[in-house]
Amino acid sequence: MNITEIIVVSLIKIVLVIVMILVAVIFLVYFERRISAWIQYRIGPNRVGWKGILQTTADVMKLLLKEDIVPSASNKTLHTLAPIIALFVAFSTYAVIPFGPDVTIFGYQVKLMVADVNIGVLYVLALTSLGVYGITFAGYSSGSKYSLLGGIRSSAQMISYEVSMGFSVAGVLLLSESLNPQKIVLAQSGWMWNAILQPIGFITFVVSAFAETNRLPFDLPEAEPELVGGYHTEYSSMKFAGFFLAEYANMIIASAMITTLYLGGWQIPYIDKLGLGVTLTTLLQVGAFFLKVIFLLFFFIWVRWSIPRFRYDQLMSLGWKVMFPLSIINIIWVACLIMIFNL
Amino acid sequence: MNLELILFIVLALIAAVSAVMVITQSHPVMSAIFLILNFFALAGLYLLLNAQFIAVVQVIVYAGAIMVLFLFVLMLLNTSSEFKVLTDKKFIKFFALLISAFVFVQLAYLIFFTKPSNAVKGNLNVSSQIGTIQNIGKELYTNYIIPFEAAGFLLLAATIGALILAKKKFE
Amino acid sequence: MTSIPMEYYLVLSGFMFSVGIVGVLIRRNAIVVFMSIELMLNSANLTLVTFSSYLGNVTGQVFVFFVMTVAAAEAAVGLAIIIAIFRNKLTVDIDKINIFKW
Which ipTM did the prediction report? Predict the structure, then answer.
Protein backbone atom coordinates (compact mmCIF):
# COMPACT_ATOMS: atom_id res chain seq x y z
CA MET A 1 0.00 0.00 0.00
CA ASN A 2 1.34 3.43 -0.78
CA ILE A 3 0.90 6.45 1.45
CA THR A 4 -2.28 7.79 -0.19
CA GLU A 5 -4.03 4.45 0.18
CA ILE A 6 -3.00 4.22 3.82
CA ILE A 7 -4.38 7.71 4.49
CA VAL A 8 -7.66 6.96 2.66
CA VAL A 9 -8.16 3.64 4.45
CA SER A 10 -7.37 5.22 7.84
CA LEU A 11 -9.78 8.09 7.20
CA ILE A 12 -12.56 5.67 6.29
CA LYS A 13 -11.88 3.68 9.46
CA ILE A 14 -11.83 6.81 11.63
CA VAL A 15 -15.13 8.08 10.22
CA LEU A 16 -16.73 4.65 10.60
CA VAL A 17 -15.59 4.31 14.21
CA ILE A 18 -16.77 7.81 15.17
CA VAL A 19 -20.18 7.32 13.56
CA MET A 20 -20.45 3.94 15.26
CA ILE A 21 -19.69 5.46 18.67
CA LEU A 22 -22.16 8.30 18.23
CA VAL A 23 -24.95 5.93 17.22
CA ALA A 24 -24.00 3.56 20.03
CA VAL A 25 -24.10 6.39 22.59
CA ILE A 26 -27.56 7.46 21.44
CA PHE A 27 -28.91 3.93 21.86
CA LEU A 28 -26.96 3.41 25.10
CA VAL A 29 -28.63 6.40 26.74
CA TYR A 30 -32.02 5.14 25.61
CA PHE A 31 -31.33 1.63 26.89
CA GLU A 32 -30.00 2.95 30.18
CA ARG A 33 -33.27 4.77 30.76
CA ARG A 34 -35.37 1.81 29.69
CA ILE A 35 -33.40 -0.68 31.79
CA SER A 36 -33.46 1.57 34.84
CA ALA A 37 -37.23 1.87 34.41
CA TRP A 38 -37.49 -1.91 34.11
CA ILE A 39 -35.38 -2.44 37.25
CA GLN A 40 -37.43 0.09 39.21
CA TYR A 41 -40.76 -1.15 37.84
CA ARG A 42 -41.49 2.00 35.88
CA ILE A 43 -42.28 2.46 32.21
CA GLY A 44 -39.51 4.78 31.08
CA PRO A 45 -39.43 6.96 27.95
CA ASN A 46 -42.10 5.71 25.53
CA ARG A 47 -43.53 8.69 23.64
CA VAL A 48 -41.00 9.87 21.04
CA GLY A 49 -40.90 7.38 18.19
CA TRP A 50 -41.57 3.66 18.42
CA LYS A 51 -41.36 2.70 22.15
CA GLY A 52 -39.57 6.01 22.80
CA ILE A 53 -36.55 5.08 20.70
CA LEU A 54 -36.08 8.65 19.46
CA GLN A 55 -36.09 10.09 23.00
CA THR A 56 -32.31 10.64 23.08
CA THR A 57 -32.33 12.37 19.70
CA ALA A 58 -35.02 14.71 20.99
CA ASP A 59 -32.99 15.37 24.15
CA VAL A 60 -29.89 16.17 22.11
CA MET A 61 -31.90 18.60 19.94
CA LYS A 62 -33.19 20.26 23.11
CA LEU A 63 -29.66 20.61 24.53
CA LEU A 64 -28.31 22.07 21.29
CA LEU A 65 -31.04 24.70 21.14
CA LYS A 66 -30.59 25.85 24.74
CA GLU A 67 -28.65 28.93 25.76
CA ASP A 68 -24.99 28.34 26.60
CA ILE A 69 -24.51 29.91 30.03
CA VAL A 70 -20.96 30.77 31.06
CA PRO A 71 -20.79 31.82 34.73
CA SER A 72 -19.24 35.24 35.30
CA ALA A 73 -16.87 33.87 37.97
CA SER A 74 -15.50 31.29 35.59
CA ASN A 75 -12.24 31.05 33.73
CA LYS A 76 -13.66 31.23 30.19
CA THR A 77 -10.85 29.52 28.27
CA LEU A 78 -10.66 26.56 30.60
CA HIS A 79 -14.43 26.38 30.84
CA THR A 80 -14.59 25.80 27.09
CA LEU A 81 -11.49 23.62 26.99
CA ALA A 82 -12.68 21.10 29.60
CA PRO A 83 -15.44 19.35 27.59
CA ILE A 84 -13.19 19.35 24.52
CA ILE A 85 -10.49 17.49 26.46
CA ALA A 86 -13.05 15.04 27.81
CA LEU A 87 -14.39 14.31 24.32
CA PHE A 88 -10.95 14.11 22.72
CA VAL A 89 -9.72 11.60 25.28
CA ALA A 90 -12.89 9.52 25.05
CA PHE A 91 -12.81 9.28 21.26
CA SER A 92 -9.12 8.83 20.58
CA THR A 93 -8.92 5.79 22.83
CA TYR A 94 -10.93 3.78 20.30
CA ALA A 95 -8.03 3.91 17.85
CA VAL A 96 -6.32 0.80 19.21
CA ILE A 97 -9.28 -1.49 19.94
CA PRO A 98 -9.33 -4.48 17.54
CA PHE A 99 -12.85 -5.29 16.34
CA GLY A 100 -11.94 -8.46 14.50
CA PRO A 101 -9.17 -10.40 12.72
CA ASP A 102 -7.37 -9.05 9.66
CA VAL A 103 -9.66 -9.21 6.63
CA THR A 104 -9.19 -8.85 2.89
CA ILE A 105 -11.57 -6.35 1.27
CA PHE A 106 -11.25 -5.64 -2.50
CA GLY A 107 -7.79 -7.14 -2.47
CA TYR A 108 -6.55 -5.00 0.40
CA GLN A 109 -5.34 -6.50 3.64
CA VAL A 110 -7.28 -4.43 6.18
CA LYS A 111 -6.87 -4.50 9.94
CA LEU A 112 -10.12 -4.07 11.84
CA MET A 113 -8.68 -1.38 14.07
CA VAL A 114 -7.80 2.23 13.33
CA ALA A 115 -4.15 2.00 14.31
CA ASP A 116 -2.09 -1.11 14.99
CA VAL A 117 0.19 0.33 17.65
CA ASN A 118 2.87 -1.80 19.27
CA ILE A 119 2.29 -0.19 22.64
CA GLY A 120 -1.49 -0.02 22.32
CA VAL A 121 -2.24 -0.88 25.94
CA LEU A 122 0.12 1.78 27.24
CA TYR A 123 -1.51 4.24 24.83
CA VAL A 124 -4.90 3.52 26.37
CA LEU A 125 -3.49 3.89 29.89
CA ALA A 126 -1.87 7.21 28.94
CA LEU A 127 -5.10 8.56 27.52
CA THR A 128 -7.19 7.46 30.49
CA SER A 129 -4.73 9.21 32.77
CA LEU A 130 -5.44 12.37 30.75
CA GLY A 131 -9.18 11.95 31.15
CA VAL A 132 -8.86 13.36 34.64
CA TYR A 133 -7.94 16.78 33.19
CA GLY A 134 -11.31 17.27 31.55
CA ILE A 135 -13.07 16.87 34.88
CA THR A 136 -10.46 18.74 36.94
CA PHE A 137 -10.48 21.74 34.61
CA ALA A 138 -14.26 21.73 34.52
CA GLY A 139 -14.36 21.73 38.31
CA TYR A 140 -11.74 24.41 38.68
CA SER A 141 -12.84 26.78 35.93
CA SER A 142 -16.51 26.93 36.90
CA GLY A 143 -15.80 29.11 39.91
CA SER A 144 -18.29 27.23 42.06
CA LYS A 145 -17.60 25.32 45.25
CA TYR A 146 -19.64 22.29 44.22
CA SER A 147 -17.74 22.03 40.96
CA LEU A 148 -14.40 22.47 42.71
CA LEU A 149 -15.20 19.73 45.22
CA GLY A 150 -16.25 17.45 42.37
CA GLY A 151 -13.04 18.21 40.49
CA ILE A 152 -10.83 17.54 43.50
CA ARG A 153 -12.64 14.32 44.32
CA SER A 154 -12.32 13.11 40.77
CA SER A 155 -8.60 13.78 40.50
CA ALA A 156 -7.94 11.88 43.73
CA GLN A 157 -10.24 9.04 42.73
CA MET A 158 -8.92 8.60 39.22
CA ILE A 159 -5.25 8.70 40.25
CA SER A 160 -5.90 6.12 42.98
CA TYR A 161 -7.71 3.67 40.77
CA GLU A 162 -5.27 4.09 37.90
CA VAL A 163 -2.69 2.35 40.07
CA SER A 164 -4.70 -0.83 40.56
CA MET A 165 -5.77 -0.67 36.91
CA GLY A 166 -2.15 -0.58 35.77
CA PHE A 167 -1.19 -3.46 38.03
CA SER A 168 -4.11 -5.58 36.79
CA VAL A 169 -3.05 -4.94 33.19
CA ALA A 170 0.48 -6.08 34.10
CA GLY A 171 -0.89 -9.57 34.71
CA VAL A 172 -2.35 -9.64 31.20
CA LEU A 173 0.94 -8.45 29.73
CA LEU A 174 2.85 -11.20 31.53
CA LEU A 175 0.69 -13.85 29.88
CA SER A 176 0.49 -12.41 26.38
CA GLU A 177 4.09 -11.10 26.28
CA SER A 178 3.00 -8.12 24.20
CA LEU A 179 1.47 -4.67 24.52
CA ASN A 180 -0.25 -4.94 21.17
CA PRO A 181 -4.04 -5.36 21.67
CA GLN A 182 -4.36 -7.64 18.64
CA LYS A 183 -1.63 -9.94 19.98
CA ILE A 184 -3.26 -9.94 23.41
CA VAL A 185 -6.50 -11.08 21.79
CA LEU A 186 -4.68 -13.76 19.79
CA ALA A 187 -2.97 -15.02 22.95
CA GLN A 188 -6.38 -15.81 24.42
CA SER A 189 -7.37 -18.41 21.83
CA GLY A 190 -9.62 -21.30 22.82
CA TRP A 191 -10.71 -21.06 26.44
CA MET A 192 -7.51 -19.37 27.59
CA TRP A 193 -9.37 -16.18 28.39
CA ASN A 194 -7.62 -13.98 30.90
CA ALA A 195 -10.84 -13.70 32.89
CA ILE A 196 -10.60 -17.44 33.57
CA LEU A 197 -6.84 -17.62 34.06
CA GLN A 198 -6.62 -14.61 36.38
CA PRO A 199 -10.02 -13.97 37.96
CA ILE A 200 -8.60 -11.63 40.64
CA GLY A 201 -7.08 -9.36 38.01
CA PHE A 202 -10.35 -9.40 36.10
CA ILE A 203 -12.28 -8.24 39.17
CA THR A 204 -9.80 -5.50 40.08
CA PHE A 205 -9.74 -4.27 36.48
CA VAL A 206 -13.54 -4.15 36.24
CA VAL A 207 -13.83 -2.29 39.55
CA SER A 208 -11.11 0.18 38.51
CA ALA A 209 -12.86 0.66 35.16
CA PHE A 210 -16.03 1.58 37.03
CA ALA A 211 -14.07 4.11 39.07
CA GLU A 212 -12.28 5.53 36.02
CA THR A 213 -15.52 6.07 34.13
CA ASN A 214 -17.14 7.72 37.17
CA ARG A 215 -20.10 5.38 37.12
CA LEU A 216 -22.11 4.43 40.13
CA PRO A 217 -21.18 3.09 42.72
CA PHE A 218 -18.15 5.40 42.22
CA ASP A 219 -19.77 8.52 40.77
CA LEU A 220 -18.52 10.80 43.55
CA PRO A 221 -17.34 13.52 41.16
CA GLU A 222 -21.02 14.03 40.25
CA ALA A 223 -22.88 12.86 43.36
CA GLU A 224 -26.12 14.74 42.76
CA PRO A 225 -27.46 14.69 46.35
CA GLU A 226 -24.32 16.21 47.89
CA LEU A 227 -22.68 18.17 45.09
CA VAL A 228 -25.70 19.14 42.97
CA GLY A 229 -24.00 17.86 39.83
CA GLY A 230 -20.34 17.93 40.75
CA TYR A 231 -17.98 19.10 38.05
CA HIS A 232 -20.69 19.86 35.49
CA THR A 233 -22.96 21.89 37.78
CA GLU A 234 -22.19 25.07 35.85
CA TYR A 235 -22.39 23.57 32.39
CA SER A 236 -25.29 23.92 30.03
CA SER A 237 -26.26 23.36 26.43
CA MET A 238 -23.62 22.01 24.05
CA LYS A 239 -20.84 21.78 26.62
CA PHE A 240 -22.99 19.74 28.97
CA ALA A 241 -23.87 17.49 26.05
CA GLY A 242 -20.13 17.10 25.48
CA PHE A 243 -19.58 15.79 29.01
CA PHE A 244 -22.61 13.55 28.72
CA LEU A 245 -21.34 12.12 25.44
CA ALA A 246 -17.85 11.64 26.88
CA GLU A 247 -19.21 9.75 29.90
CA TYR A 248 -21.11 7.26 27.76
CA ALA A 249 -18.27 6.97 25.24
CA ASN A 250 -15.98 6.17 28.17
CA MET A 251 -18.38 3.47 29.25
CA ILE A 252 -18.15 1.88 25.80
CA ILE A 253 -14.37 2.13 25.75
CA ALA A 254 -14.16 0.53 29.20
CA SER A 255 -16.34 -2.35 28.03
CA ALA A 256 -14.27 -2.74 24.86
CA MET A 257 -11.05 -2.76 26.90
CA ILE A 258 -12.40 -5.37 29.33
CA THR A 259 -13.46 -7.49 26.36
CA THR A 260 -10.08 -7.15 24.64
CA LEU A 261 -7.93 -7.75 27.70
CA TYR A 262 -9.93 -10.35 29.60
CA LEU A 263 -12.79 -11.82 27.57
CA GLY A 264 -10.90 -12.95 24.50
CA GLY A 265 -11.73 -9.96 22.31
CA TRP A 266 -13.34 -11.06 19.05
CA GLN A 267 -12.43 -14.72 19.54
CA ILE A 268 -15.04 -17.43 19.72
CA PRO A 269 -13.62 -20.63 21.27
CA TYR A 270 -13.10 -23.49 18.80
CA ILE A 271 -14.91 -21.77 15.91
CA ASP A 272 -12.28 -23.05 13.46
CA LYS A 273 -13.34 -26.64 14.27
CA LEU A 274 -16.78 -25.99 12.76
CA GLY A 275 -15.40 -25.64 9.25
CA LEU A 276 -17.28 -22.46 8.32
CA GLY A 277 -16.16 -20.23 5.45
CA VAL A 278 -13.68 -17.40 6.06
CA THR A 279 -16.23 -14.64 5.53
CA LEU A 280 -18.81 -16.20 7.82
CA THR A 281 -16.21 -16.83 10.53
CA THR A 282 -15.02 -13.25 10.41
CA LEU A 283 -18.58 -11.91 10.57
CA LEU A 284 -19.35 -14.16 13.53
CA GLN A 285 -16.18 -13.06 15.31
CA VAL A 286 -16.94 -9.36 14.84
CA GLY A 287 -20.47 -10.08 16.03
CA ALA A 288 -19.06 -11.88 19.09
CA PHE A 289 -16.98 -8.81 19.96
CA PHE A 290 -20.01 -6.54 19.84
CA LEU A 291 -22.12 -9.04 21.82
CA LYS A 292 -19.53 -9.14 24.58
CA VAL A 293 -19.36 -5.35 24.66
CA ILE A 294 -23.15 -5.06 24.79
CA PHE A 295 -23.31 -7.55 27.65
CA LEU A 296 -20.72 -5.54 29.60
CA LEU A 297 -22.65 -2.32 28.93
CA PHE A 298 -25.76 -4.00 30.32
CA PHE A 299 -23.67 -5.02 33.34
CA PHE A 300 -22.60 -1.38 33.83
CA ILE A 301 -26.22 -0.21 33.81
CA TRP A 302 -27.33 -3.12 36.00
CA VAL A 303 -24.73 -2.26 38.65
CA ARG A 304 -25.62 1.41 38.51
CA TRP A 305 -29.22 0.77 39.43
CA SER A 306 -28.50 -1.92 42.02
CA ILE A 307 -25.68 -0.68 44.24
CA PRO A 308 -25.77 2.59 46.25
CA ARG A 309 -22.95 5.15 46.12
CA PHE A 310 -19.86 4.72 48.28
CA ARG A 311 -18.87 7.35 50.81
CA TYR A 312 -15.67 9.17 49.87
CA ASP A 313 -13.44 7.60 52.54
CA GLN A 314 -14.89 4.17 51.75
CA LEU A 315 -13.99 4.71 48.11
CA MET A 316 -10.40 5.60 48.97
CA SER A 317 -9.91 2.74 51.41
CA LEU A 318 -11.42 0.31 48.90
CA GLY A 319 -9.01 1.56 46.26
CA TRP A 320 -5.84 1.51 48.32
CA LYS A 321 -6.46 -1.18 50.91
CA VAL A 322 -8.38 -3.76 48.88
CA MET A 323 -8.00 -3.31 45.13
CA PHE A 324 -4.31 -2.39 45.13
CA PRO A 325 -3.13 -5.40 47.24
CA LEU A 326 -5.44 -7.68 45.26
CA SER A 327 -3.93 -6.57 41.96
CA ILE A 328 -0.44 -7.26 43.31
CA ILE A 329 -1.56 -10.72 44.49
CA ASN A 330 -2.82 -11.22 40.93
CA ILE A 331 0.62 -10.52 39.49
CA ILE A 332 2.16 -13.11 41.83
CA TRP A 333 -0.57 -15.57 40.84
CA VAL A 334 0.14 -15.05 37.14
CA ALA A 335 3.86 -15.43 37.71
CA CYS A 336 3.21 -18.74 39.49
CA LEU A 337 0.99 -19.86 36.59
CA ILE A 338 3.73 -19.11 34.11
CA MET A 339 6.34 -20.88 36.21
CA ILE A 340 4.29 -24.02 36.83
CA PHE A 341 2.59 -24.52 33.46
CA ASN A 342 5.13 -22.80 31.19
CA LEU A 343 2.31 -20.86 29.57
CA MET B 1 11.02 20.36 3.75
CA ASN B 2 10.17 16.84 4.68
CA LEU B 3 7.46 15.74 7.07
CA GLU B 4 9.82 15.01 9.97
CA LEU B 5 11.36 18.47 9.89
CA ILE B 6 7.93 20.16 9.80
CA LEU B 7 6.79 18.05 12.74
CA PHE B 8 9.96 18.87 14.62
CA ILE B 9 9.57 22.62 14.04
CA VAL B 10 5.93 22.62 15.14
CA LEU B 11 6.62 20.57 18.28
CA ALA B 12 9.74 22.53 19.14
CA LEU B 13 7.86 25.82 18.80
CA ILE B 14 5.09 24.55 21.06
CA ALA B 15 7.66 23.35 23.60
CA ALA B 16 9.62 26.63 23.57
CA VAL B 17 6.61 28.95 23.69
CA SER B 18 4.87 26.97 26.41
CA ALA B 19 8.09 26.91 28.45
CA VAL B 20 8.19 30.70 28.32
CA MET B 21 4.50 30.89 29.18
CA VAL B 22 5.06 28.74 32.29
CA ILE B 23 7.22 31.39 33.89
CA THR B 24 5.36 34.45 32.57
CA GLN B 25 1.75 33.54 33.39
CA SER B 26 0.57 35.34 36.51
CA HIS B 27 -1.90 32.64 37.52
CA PRO B 28 -0.22 29.45 38.79
CA VAL B 29 -2.94 27.22 37.35
CA MET B 30 -2.29 28.64 33.88
CA SER B 31 1.43 27.96 34.43
CA ALA B 32 0.60 24.35 35.22
CA ILE B 33 -1.51 24.05 32.07
CA PHE B 34 1.28 25.39 29.88
CA LEU B 35 3.69 23.00 31.57
CA ILE B 36 1.35 20.14 30.63
CA LEU B 37 1.37 21.41 27.03
CA ASN B 38 5.16 21.49 27.16
CA PHE B 39 5.28 17.86 28.35
CA PHE B 40 3.03 16.86 25.47
CA ALA B 41 5.27 18.54 22.93
CA LEU B 42 8.22 16.73 24.50
CA ALA B 43 6.38 13.42 24.24
CA GLY B 44 5.89 14.16 20.53
CA LEU B 45 9.60 14.90 20.16
CA TYR B 46 10.45 11.60 21.87
CA LEU B 47 8.25 9.84 19.33
CA LEU B 48 10.17 11.60 16.54
CA LEU B 49 13.34 10.27 18.16
CA ASN B 50 11.88 6.71 18.07
CA ALA B 51 11.75 6.55 21.86
CA GLN B 52 8.20 5.25 22.08
CA PHE B 53 8.41 3.89 25.62
CA ILE B 54 9.80 7.13 27.03
CA ALA B 55 7.13 9.09 25.11
CA VAL B 56 4.28 7.11 26.65
CA VAL B 57 5.85 7.15 30.11
CA GLN B 58 6.29 10.90 29.77
CA VAL B 59 2.54 11.25 29.26
CA ILE B 60 1.59 8.75 31.98
CA VAL B 61 4.02 9.91 34.67
CA TYR B 62 4.47 13.61 34.02
CA ALA B 63 1.18 14.67 32.45
CA GLY B 64 -0.96 12.01 34.11
CA ALA B 65 0.41 11.89 37.64
CA ILE B 66 2.85 14.64 38.59
CA MET B 67 0.94 17.52 37.02
CA VAL B 68 -2.37 16.28 38.44
CA LEU B 69 -0.68 16.43 41.84
CA PHE B 70 0.42 20.00 41.15
CA LEU B 71 -3.06 21.03 40.03
CA PHE B 72 -4.53 19.30 43.05
CA VAL B 73 -2.35 21.30 45.44
CA LEU B 74 -2.97 24.54 43.53
CA MET B 75 -6.71 24.03 43.72
CA LEU B 76 -6.63 23.16 47.41
CA LEU B 77 -4.44 26.10 48.40
CA ASN B 78 -5.99 28.49 45.86
CA THR B 79 -3.42 31.24 46.45
CA SER B 80 -3.89 32.97 43.15
CA SER B 81 -4.19 36.66 43.95
CA GLU B 82 -2.68 37.10 47.39
CA PHE B 83 0.75 38.32 46.37
CA LYS B 84 2.77 39.72 43.54
CA VAL B 85 4.00 37.36 40.85
CA LEU B 86 7.63 38.30 40.53
CA THR B 87 10.17 38.90 43.19
CA ASP B 88 10.65 42.62 43.95
CA LYS B 89 14.39 42.50 44.32
CA LYS B 90 15.59 44.26 41.16
CA PHE B 91 19.09 42.79 41.14
CA ILE B 92 17.72 39.25 41.29
CA LYS B 93 15.62 39.85 38.20
CA PHE B 94 18.59 41.33 36.40
CA PHE B 95 20.97 38.57 37.41
CA ALA B 96 18.44 35.88 36.57
CA LEU B 97 18.20 37.06 32.97
CA LEU B 98 21.95 37.52 32.79
CA ILE B 99 22.76 34.08 34.17
CA SER B 100 20.27 32.28 32.00
CA ALA B 101 21.40 34.14 28.87
CA PHE B 102 24.97 33.23 29.76
CA VAL B 103 24.07 29.57 30.24
CA PHE B 104 22.17 29.51 26.95
CA VAL B 105 24.99 31.10 24.97
CA GLN B 106 27.46 28.74 26.56
CA LEU B 107 25.36 25.70 25.72
CA ALA B 108 24.76 26.91 22.16
CA TYR B 109 28.48 27.46 21.73
CA LEU B 110 29.24 23.97 22.99
CA ILE B 111 26.59 22.48 20.72
CA PHE B 112 27.50 24.22 17.50
CA PHE B 113 31.19 25.02 17.66
CA THR B 114 32.79 22.00 19.23
CA LYS B 115 33.88 19.03 17.17
CA PRO B 116 31.42 16.17 17.43
CA SER B 117 33.03 13.03 18.78
CA ASN B 118 33.57 10.09 16.47
CA ALA B 119 30.77 8.11 18.08
CA VAL B 120 28.19 10.74 17.10
CA LYS B 121 29.44 10.87 13.54
CA GLY B 122 29.80 7.16 13.04
CA ASN B 123 26.44 5.84 14.16
CA LEU B 124 23.97 8.06 12.36
CA ASN B 125 21.91 5.27 10.83
CA VAL B 126 21.23 3.19 13.90
CA SER B 127 18.17 1.01 14.06
CA SER B 128 14.91 2.53 15.21
CA GLN B 129 14.39 -0.40 17.56
CA ILE B 130 16.40 0.76 20.56
CA GLY B 131 13.52 2.61 22.20
CA THR B 132 11.14 -0.34 22.30
CA ILE B 133 9.81 -1.69 25.56
CA GLN B 134 11.59 -5.01 25.07
CA ASN B 135 14.98 -3.31 24.84
CA ILE B 136 14.50 -0.98 27.77
CA GLY B 137 12.99 -3.75 29.91
CA LYS B 138 15.91 -6.05 29.18
CA GLU B 139 18.37 -3.33 30.07
CA LEU B 140 16.51 -2.40 33.26
CA TYR B 141 16.31 -5.95 34.58
CA THR B 142 19.87 -6.98 33.74
CA ASN B 143 22.50 -4.24 33.73
CA TYR B 144 20.55 -1.76 35.81
CA ILE B 145 18.82 -4.06 38.28
CA ILE B 146 20.40 -2.47 41.38
CA PRO B 147 19.56 1.13 40.38
CA PHE B 148 16.09 -0.11 39.50
CA GLU B 149 15.57 -1.56 42.98
CA ALA B 150 17.02 1.59 44.47
CA ALA B 151 14.51 3.65 42.49
CA GLY B 152 11.72 1.52 43.91
CA PHE B 153 13.08 2.08 47.40
CA LEU B 154 13.29 5.81 46.74
CA LEU B 155 9.64 5.88 45.76
CA LEU B 156 8.69 4.00 48.93
CA ALA B 157 10.69 6.46 51.04
CA ALA B 158 9.07 9.40 49.20
CA THR B 159 5.60 7.98 49.81
CA ILE B 160 6.22 7.59 53.55
CA GLY B 161 7.86 11.01 53.72
CA ALA B 162 4.98 12.71 51.95
CA LEU B 163 2.47 10.97 54.22
CA ILE B 164 4.25 12.07 57.38
CA LEU B 165 4.80 15.64 56.15
CA ALA B 166 1.19 16.06 55.08
CA LYS B 167 -0.20 14.78 58.39
CA LYS B 168 -1.98 17.39 60.47
CA LYS B 169 0.15 17.11 63.62
CA PHE B 170 3.78 16.27 64.07
CA GLU B 171 4.25 13.70 66.81
CA MET C 1 15.37 10.68 12.18
CA THR C 2 18.58 11.35 10.37
CA SER C 3 17.07 14.22 8.43
CA ILE C 4 17.02 16.46 11.51
CA PRO C 5 20.43 17.55 12.79
CA MET C 6 21.04 16.55 16.39
CA GLU C 7 21.93 20.14 17.26
CA TYR C 8 18.31 21.27 16.85
CA TYR C 9 17.16 19.06 19.70
CA LEU C 10 20.09 20.12 21.87
CA VAL C 11 19.46 23.83 21.32
CA LEU C 12 15.80 23.40 22.19
CA SER C 13 16.85 21.60 25.34
CA GLY C 14 19.32 24.36 26.20
CA PHE C 15 16.63 26.99 25.69
CA MET C 16 14.20 25.19 28.00
CA PHE C 17 16.90 24.86 30.62
CA SER C 18 17.62 28.61 30.52
CA VAL C 19 13.92 29.41 30.80
CA GLY C 20 13.78 27.10 33.81
CA ILE C 21 16.64 28.99 35.46
CA VAL C 22 14.84 32.31 35.01
CA GLY C 23 11.67 30.81 36.44
CA VAL C 24 13.41 29.48 39.55
CA LEU C 25 15.09 32.80 40.23
CA ILE C 26 12.33 35.33 39.59
CA ARG C 27 9.04 33.69 40.57
CA ARG C 28 7.69 34.08 44.11
CA ASN C 29 5.16 31.26 44.21
CA ALA C 30 6.92 28.17 45.54
CA ILE C 31 4.81 25.87 43.37
CA VAL C 32 5.76 27.73 40.19
CA VAL C 33 9.41 27.49 41.24
CA PHE C 34 8.82 23.75 41.47
CA MET C 35 7.36 23.72 37.99
CA SER C 36 10.42 25.51 36.66
CA ILE C 37 12.59 22.79 38.20
CA GLU C 38 10.46 20.20 36.40
CA LEU C 39 11.06 22.16 33.20
CA MET C 40 14.81 21.92 33.73
CA LEU C 41 14.63 18.20 34.47
CA ASN C 42 12.68 17.71 31.26
CA SER C 43 15.19 19.60 29.19
CA ALA C 44 17.89 17.30 30.57
CA ASN C 45 15.69 14.34 29.64
CA LEU C 46 15.39 15.63 26.08
CA THR C 47 19.18 15.78 25.80
CA LEU C 48 19.55 12.24 27.12
CA VAL C 49 16.95 10.82 24.74
CA THR C 50 18.48 12.70 21.81
CA PHE C 51 21.94 11.29 22.44
CA SER C 52 20.51 7.86 23.11
CA SER C 53 18.71 7.83 19.76
CA TYR C 54 21.55 9.25 17.71
CA LEU C 55 24.19 7.01 19.27
CA GLY C 56 22.02 3.90 19.15
CA ASN C 57 22.61 3.28 22.84
CA VAL C 58 19.69 2.50 25.14
CA THR C 59 21.43 3.70 28.32
CA GLY C 60 20.24 7.27 27.87
CA GLN C 61 16.60 6.21 27.83
CA VAL C 62 17.08 4.01 30.88
CA PHE C 63 18.54 7.03 32.62
CA VAL C 64 15.51 9.12 31.64
CA PHE C 65 13.38 6.46 33.31
CA PHE C 66 15.32 7.00 36.55
CA VAL C 67 15.09 10.77 36.22
CA MET C 68 11.31 10.44 35.98
CA THR C 69 11.27 8.27 39.11
CA VAL C 70 13.25 10.88 41.00
CA ALA C 71 11.02 13.67 39.66
CA ALA C 72 7.92 11.84 40.89
CA ALA C 73 9.44 11.35 44.35
CA GLU C 74 10.56 14.97 44.40
CA ALA C 75 7.11 16.25 43.44
CA ALA C 76 5.41 14.17 46.13
CA VAL C 77 7.74 15.19 48.96
CA GLY C 78 8.13 18.78 47.77
CA LEU C 79 4.41 19.40 47.51
CA ALA C 80 3.93 17.82 50.95
CA ILE C 81 6.50 20.27 52.33
CA ILE C 82 4.75 23.16 50.62
CA ILE C 83 1.42 22.10 52.14
CA ALA C 84 3.06 21.84 55.57
CA ILE C 85 4.48 25.35 55.18
CA PHE C 86 1.13 26.65 54.01
CA ARG C 87 -0.51 25.23 57.14
CA ASN C 88 1.87 27.16 59.36
CA LYS C 89 2.37 30.42 57.45
CA LEU C 90 -0.77 30.58 55.26
CA THR C 91 1.36 31.49 52.27
CA VAL C 92 3.54 29.83 49.67
CA ASP C 93 5.42 33.03 48.83
CA ILE C 94 9.09 32.10 49.09
CA ASP C 95 10.08 35.70 49.81
CA LYS C 96 7.97 35.59 52.97
CA ILE C 97 9.16 32.19 54.14
CA ASN C 98 12.32 33.54 55.72
CA ILE C 99 11.97 32.60 59.35
CA PHE C 100 15.42 31.00 59.42
CA LYS C 101 17.01 34.16 58.03
CA TRP C 102 18.06 36.60 60.74
Answer: 0.88
